[in-house]
Design a protein that fits this description.
alpha/beta, TIM Barrel, globular, 320 residues, single chain, 11 helices, 12 strands, binds ligand PBG
Amino acid sequence: MIIRPRRLRRTKVLREMVRETTLSPKDLIYPLFVKPGKGIKDPIPSMPGQFQFSVDRVAHEAREAWGLGIPAVILFGIPDKKDPVGSRSWASDGVVQQAVSAIKEKLPDMLIITDVCMCEYTDHGHCGVIKDGDVDNDATLELLARQAVSHAKAGADLVAPSDMMDGRVAAIRKALDQEGFKDIGILSYAVKYASAFYGPFRDAADSAPQFGDRSTYQMDPANALEAIKEAELDLEEGADIIMVKPAMAYLDIVRAVREVCLNPVAAYNVSGEYAMVKAAEEKGWIDGKRVMMEMLTAIKRAGADLILTYFAKEAAMALG
Ligand code: PBG
């Protein structure tokens, strides 16, 4: 006797009924880049369809996403000037702070997440302050906490530290609590690998390190046990949502973290993953839309509850 799994694949309706994983616009978080100026919507060459927006234009883009059913954005800032400590990152009139207020004013229910890191704001492009040629962990904590508090003051709903300093979730939690933001959550980039998949992002955010690389703070792509350790540490320190990043080449890690973690898990479908699909699609080598949906479904299937993706609007449109 032949066992016939094909029976359940016979018609579209039947396939849909037995489908194990479903994707919804509600799962998606849309990353946006904000820069100083007015009336700006500059295309990012290595990320076709993505732009750097000035504050006055970013709310419009957020509204489009909201209209498609996407509940959240995550904001990245490109400051007017950079310095060794990234002081524009905690300025009350900084680009991200202004963008948060602008979006909140127009879309009070939309969830606003802010990326908390120094690399876009430091002139050396590293994710913290430099001492003896490397990032000084403990000196950086205070600056990250300041930045997170300034985002909360502007109206952010969740702050998302992406720096990979040890102890930063605890430092940020403590500062937020002290300043009266006990209900502002932390979406921690808990499991963030030192990845070449971030290449296009660094063009978009002008945040490439000017010397060396990030391997003394971001994780070695060869490690999986360490992912569990990082996730557990961040939960102990008070993280509300745990993120794994990148997503596609790290689906085993998404699954492993999902299995040990009782909090929501997010995965970041990063810039390089987006760029590869767009480039191959442009060459006519793949069906970009189908590959996009397959990627996002796979990330969800691996165990991610939430997906940060540049495809958010396109995917939401495809999902109808
Ligand atoms: C900042 C940050 C990076 C990304 C998100 N936050 C870049 C990096 O660590 O170099 C990458 C996002 C992407 O590639 O889409 N530290």
